[in-house]
Amino acid sequence: MASRPASRDEFEVAVVCALPREYDAASLAFDEFWDDEGDIYGKAPNDPNIYTTGSIQRLNVVLVLLPGMGKVNAANTVASLRSSYSGIRLVILTGICGAAPSQENEIILGDVIISKSVVQYDFGRQYTSGFVRKDTVEDNLGRPVASIRSLLSMFQTARGRDRLLDKAEDILSQMQERAARNKRNQIRYDRPPTFEDKLFATDYVHKHRDTHCKSCTEHACDVARLASCDELCCDDGSLITRKRLSEIRGGMPDVKIFVGGIASGDMIMRSGQDRDRIAKEAHVIGFEMEGAGVWDGIPSIVVKGVCDYADSHKTDKWQDYAAATAASVTKAILIQYLQPIKGDTDDSPGTSLCPSTSTRKGLPMSSDSNSGSWAIFHGNISGKNVVAGQQIKGGTTTMNFRG
After folding, report:
1. How many other C-beta atoms can be found within 10 angstroms of the C-beta atom of residue 254?
2. Which residue of 65, 149, 160, 197 has the smallest Cβ count within 10 Å?
3. Which is higher by pLDDT, 93 or 137?
């Protein structure tokens, strides 16, 4: 298990959630909490965030809940996070999303999408003829840093994906058991019945189909939008047959992981036709609302569980389970790929952001990047510290410490 950090500067990973139900699921993935008896780390002046600190195996992690949904809330929260926890090197945004299923990607509810890229699909210009997304090099969000790209490449291999899924499956079972033992918690995070996983044809709109509602002649009225498919008697004859669901014959399908582009915007996607159009144009497989606010601010990964199909038949029934599958995959990533390793030159732990990356603490003794010789200086700021017999060079500056 991790040892309690001496200060908040020792936290290198943050998990960010947009909704309370996402936070509840993510908190079940923690092994220990450091703030059960109060916040011992504090935060920077004018930081409005409320932090939860703890550990996942040997890794110290800070968990933060956004004040609300959307890109602006996400960007502001991460900016404040970095001011208080200056050692953060990776943010994992975990929670729920809508999916854009296709023949190439047979995504079902409860599956997990990991971001290969994030697209701001609502960033553009509105013309009389319609909306045009800004899609130049300057307008698009950048690609992940090299260490995260290595991680994402590993998740696209059969072995890497299987290892992650095996670990996530065990973690999900532990989370479900932990939730069941909590008598004050009514959420069980069990998978809803398979017959509740319904994907309707793109052009089959969720609306009244009787002659009494004139508003639903072409589009759905406000009453219909709030009603369930059972209440509106949505026709199961318009359902799309999925191979994964038809093959299990009453059992529970395995959760799958998909790595791909995620569309991020300040609106909830509830249109099958717009979903398919944007998915084709922007090459995305999921829709959510916070990734674009985090993506450019700090190295990050978006890990979201699929709770609906981003169409007019959207339902809340799968949200808790999807939040739990995302949290289990998030923990599996941290356990298998991001656990602390020993530094090369001292006994304090560093953090590897991918299997091939290590951290070395200290200052280089010369400007030669290939030197491999490092000087490490320790001491209190208020004390009188002496460094003797060292020379440090950087740029045009040379510092000599004589004995």
Report:
1. 12
2. 149
3. 93
Band of pLDDT at residue 253, cut at 50, 70 and 90: confident
How many whole angstroms separate alpha carbon 305 and alpha carbon 290? 14
What pLDDT does 398 receive?
53
Residue type, 322: A
**Integer Cα distance of 360 and 350 in angstroms:** 7
pTM above 0.85, yes or no: no
State residue 350's pLDDT score.
Answer: 43
Closest residue by Cα to residue 340 from 329, 328, 352: 352
- Residue that wins the pLDDT comparison between 232 and 32: 32
- Environment class of 181 (CB within 10 Å of its CB; exposed 0-12, middle 13-18, buried 19+): exposed
DSSP string, 293-323: HHHTTSSEEEEEEEEE-SSTT--STTHHHHH
Domains for the chain: give ranges and CATH numbers: 8-199+240-341 (3.40.50.1580), 363-403 (no CATH)
Name 20's bridge partners.
none
The encoded tokens of residue 83 equal 């001011």
Mean pLDDT across the stretch 271-294? 93
DSSP 171-227: HHHHHHHHHHH-TT-----PPPPGGG---B-TT---S--STT-GGGTTS--HHHHHS
CA distance 49 to 91: 15
Say if residues 285 and 262 touch (Cβ distance below 8 Å): yes
Query: Using an 8 Å Cβ cutoff, are 108 and 100 in contact?
Result: no
